[in-house]
Amino acid sequence: MNLLDGHLLPENQQKLVITVAPYGPQWQLSDFPEDIPLTMQEQIDKAAECYEAGATVLHLHVRELDGKGSKRLSKFNELIAGVRKAVPDMVIQVGGSISFAPESEGEAAKWLSDDTRHMLAELDPKPDQVTLAINSNQFNLVEIMSEADIAGTSFAQPAIYHAYREMTFPAGPQWVEEHIKRLSANDIGIQFQIGNMASFMTVERMMRRGVCNVPLNLTWIPIAGGADTPDLYHMAQFVRAVPDGALLTFESLMRNTLPINMMAIAQGLHVRCGNEDNLWAQDGKTKFGSVEQIKQLVRISKEFGRPVANGKEAKELLKIGTFYKSADETLAANGFAPNRKAA
């Protein structure tokens, strides 16, 4: 991104798009019973509460009544329909892993099969976006978690800790291109979940080959454990590579989340929060719910002088419903240099 003179001034920035992830699929209900919704109505109500607080993008997972993350697409259909009715202007973004929570103690934390994840393109009603990880990789959620982060949570159990430490996600090139094809054919947008520069370069190469003709909506996820580290150096490298036509959101892990989001707000970029990412206030002792995290970011953004986007504005900024016809059109719209011409 070309961060020109004046880019830190609010009049030169987009309105802030806040994504919230309030369903915490990796957590057990006992980890934060006051904030993690269980019944279908509670999950719908949580989306409405988050929207009222200022979040305009809902990162959606579904929980079964036994407390486990749901892997049934019928439950996703039910929740999407309920959220659509309750908050029609909210952007619904389905988590592409479906649910990576272990089925039982001692099992591996893993993403579902390729064929099952392809079925997200058939959800009815359709979501606005599905998140898409690029390049099969380690997804070690606990590498930079501190003892204080996991104290008193299910992650303190050795079997659970091991399951998330060893987690990987499958996202090979053939599956990724087919998934993009299916989502695009059904007018479902893509939110690229990018943890490192190599994955970002793969997205650019797909766009240059004409197999990824979509708006470049990115979430940078510096959670270490196979992804970048949440520090200024990795942030600067990543931001520098992203073209001006992209919409870039920052996401991090536990108490790194607020500082990373503050830097995103200051630079005119966008943010994600919620109990899927973080359970704690910055003192490391107080649990801090999804709605409280949203309200905190709204307040901080206003102190920067930067207004928060409403639902309709967020859809415009994310270019929901927009798809391109060719590599040339995709590259131009997203701000990349055109493909090389023959010498």
From TrEMBL:
Assigned keywords, A-Z: Metal-binding, Transferase, Zinc
Cofactor(s) listed: Zn(2+)
InterPro entries recorded: Aldolase_TIM, BKACE
GO MF assignments: 3-keto-5-aminohexanoate cleavage activity; metal ion binding
Record has Zinc as a keyword: yes
Gene3D superfamilies for this protein: Aldolase class I
EC number: 2.-.-.-
Pfam families tied to this protein: BKACE
PANTHER family in alphabetical order: 3-KETO-5-AMINOHEXANOATE CLEAVAGE ENZYME, 3-KETO-5-AMINOHEXANOATE CLEAVAGE ENZYME-RELATED
Name under which the protein is recorded: 3-keto-5-aminohexanoate cleavage enzyme
Organism: Caballeronia choica
Name of the encoding gene: kce_2
